Automatic annotation (TrEMBL):
Keyword Phosphoprotein: yes
Modified residue annotations for 4-aspartylphosphate: D55
Transcription recorded as keyword: yes
Function, as annotated: May play the central regulatory role in sporulation. It may be an element of the effector pathway responsible for the activation of sporulation genes in response to nutritional stress. Spo0A may act in concert with spo0H (a sigma factor) to control the expression of some genes that are critical to the sporulation process.
UniProt name for this protein: Stage 0 sporulation protein A homolog
Limits of the Response regulatory domain: 3-120
An individual GO BP term: phosphorelay signal transduction system
Keywords: DNA-binding, Phosphoprotein, Transcription, Transcription regulation
Annotated signal peptide: none
Domain HTH araC/xylS-type: 439-537
SMART domains recorded: HTH_ARAC, REC
């Protein structure tokens, strides 16, 4: 509904307009009134009405004076002037003030007022539609600019050897300028990114986060005329500091100050800290790739550092170690044992000891995540054995989140939270999921997984008809039997892919799929990767 302010020093005029016009029917509502132009101005500043209907001759400030002041602050406001016969010439001045309409008080009719309201409403709707289309176009252009600039920066960082003049021309098409003498590549990432995108501020809108970060960084870089920013994958922003050396200015101090301002602004607007990885200075575009690759070693340091830092490529030694394979296997076995008893205290202690060990020994981040993946697989097996569908308890989204975390402290906190949540769910539901019938069903599935198990077969095995079995199974697991069986088969297939050297065809047979192509199709539908990709990605 559009809002209206009435301004007139004659109270009977205001009251008459209130009661004689069916405002709501025509899409309007009176939000405030004033008895003179001065009060009308302040009311307009407070309420920002869509339409102002005002007399011309009033004390303290007339209608024209009020309209001029309002238009300075609210240029899109709509104004209807009310005039008497003798003020008719003033009404022409109203047109010069860009009034939307003027009406003669003594002779105006409801039809004239309704006609004026309809005209104004149409104008407002048309302006809103134009603005919406302009915004949509702007968003689309920004999206295209983002996508194309990401292609450009990745080309520079991966190929390295580019024709400088040609590359600069392509950059200029999208209003980027990297034509100065020296370059320092940097990488910005938001800390605790997973919590940020899941929070109330962004509500999983990763595009909005990207847009906000790029706007903030671009604005600050332009303010100091010191480079450009490019998107590069999810939660990665490449900054190329670009400048001409000046003996009067310490470029290191300036770039540090600019980086701190970026961090401060992101903290204020996005409510998040960010880490900036800083490369070394190079003298040509062709060298940016090398400087960037050298800088990426800082990401290993980042895994063991706190949030909100600026990390410099200082060539310092930072000794990393690999996880001991035997230790990992023993850890998983112990984890499985405690998980079988749903003993959260011992599980939490085991988790604590593991994370303290990796922090003490600076274990490579990739190795730490391999262990976490093994533990998540153990959780998955425990969930399936308990009678739940894997996705009911362990969401693919949070599994993905774990492997996107780039900080050991956040990884520890997130894994502990999900471990506790999973054990809580299993504890609360153990009493009714592990009934004798359910144990019998699960045992049958486990022992006959490589066979063609149908709903009818297993229903007969537990002495139920198919319809009753379907209802019973859903009441215990929350899902249907076929989806549950598929989840068990795929979980087992994942174990075999990671822990054996069996061929994909052999694994398909072991989990009840005689057709390799169909198995591959189902596996990809559930996991997002085909079996070969899954094995290669996890074992590389």
């Amino acid at each position: 509904m559009l809002t209206v302010m009435l301004v007139d020093d004659e109270i009977n005029v205001i009251e008459g307009l209130k009661v004689s016009i069916d405002w709501e029917k025509h899409g309007f509502g009176i939000i405030c009134t004033a008895a003179n132009g001065e009060d009308g101005y302040y009311m307009a500043m407070e309420h920002k009405p869509d339409l102002i209907i005002t007399d011309i001759t009033m004390p303290r400030l007339d209608g024209f004076g009020m309209a001029e002041k309002i238009r300075e602050k609210l240029p899109e406001s709509n104004i209807i002037f009310l005039t008497c016969h003798e003020d008719f010439n003033f009404a022409r001045k109203a047109v010069n003030l860009s009034a939307d309409e003027y009406l003669i008080k003594d002779t105006m009719t409801r039809e004239e007022i309704y006609s004026a309201l309809a005209k104004i409403k149409t104008g407002i709707e048309e302006r809103k539609l134009k603005k919406k289309k302009a915004n949509e176009l702007s968003v689309e252009l920004n999206r295209n600019r983002c996508q194309l600039s990401e292609i450009l920066i990745n080309e520079l960082l991966k190929k390295g050897k580019v024709d400088t003049n040609s590359f600069e021309r392509r950059l200029s098409i999208y209003n980027y300028n990297l034509s100065k003498q020296k370059y320092i590549p940097a990488l910005l990432t938001l800390d605790r990114y997973i919590g940020l995108i899941n929070g109330d501020l962004f509500n999983n809108d990763t595009e909005l986060i990207r847009f906000a970060v790029l706007n903030i960084v671009e604005e600050i870089l332009k303010k100091y005329d010191i480079g450009e920013v490019f998107p590069s994958g999810e939660n990665e922003y490449i900054i190329i500091f670009n400048y001409t050396p000046n003996l009067k200015i310490s470029i290191d101090e300036k770039i540090t100050a600019v980086s701190k301002e970026i961090q401060s602004c992101i903290s204020e607007v996005i409510k998040a800290t960010c880490t900036i990885y800083m490369g070394i200075q190079v003298g040509s575009m062709q060298e940016i790739k090398r400087a960037y690759e050298e800088m990426l070693i800082l990401k290993n340091y980042r895994f063991y550092m706190q949030d909100g830092l600026i990390l410099y490529n200082s060539k310092r030694e930072f000794n990393f170690s690999n996880i001991d394979f035997n230790y990992m296997n023993d850890l998983v076995k112990e984890f499985d044992h405690y998980l079988g008893d749903l003993n959260i205290e011992l599980l939490a202690h085991l988790e604590y000891v593991f994370f303290e060990k990796v922090k003490r020994e600076n274990v490579f981040a990739a190795d730490v995540k391999i262990v976490i993946e093994r533990l998540v697989n153990s959780l998955g097996k425990s969930v399936e054995k308990s009678g739940f569908m894997y996705r009911q308890v362990i969401q693919d989204s949070w599994v993905k989140q774990l492997f996107n975390i780039d900080n050991v402290y956040e990884l520890n906190e997130t894994f502990h939270r999900h471990l506790s949540d999973t054990v809580d769910v299993l504890k609360k539901n153990a009493s009714y999921t592990c009934t004798p019938e359910m144990r019998k069903i699960l045992k049958y599935i486990s022992e006959h997984l490589q066979e063609d198990i149908s709903l009818e077969t297993i229903a007969a095995y537990v002495n139920m008809n198919s319809s009753y079995f379907s209802r019973y199974f859903k009441s215990k697991t929350g899902g249907n039997f076929i989806d549950f069986l598929t989840g068990v088969r795929i979980q087992k297939a994942k174990e075999l892919l990671l822990e054996t050297e069996l061929t994909i065809e052999e694994i398909a047979m072991k989990v009840g799929h005689v057709n390799k192509a169909y198995f591959t199709k189902v596996f990809k539908k559930v996991t997002g990767s085909n079996p070969g990709e899954f094995r290669k990605k996890r074992c590389s």
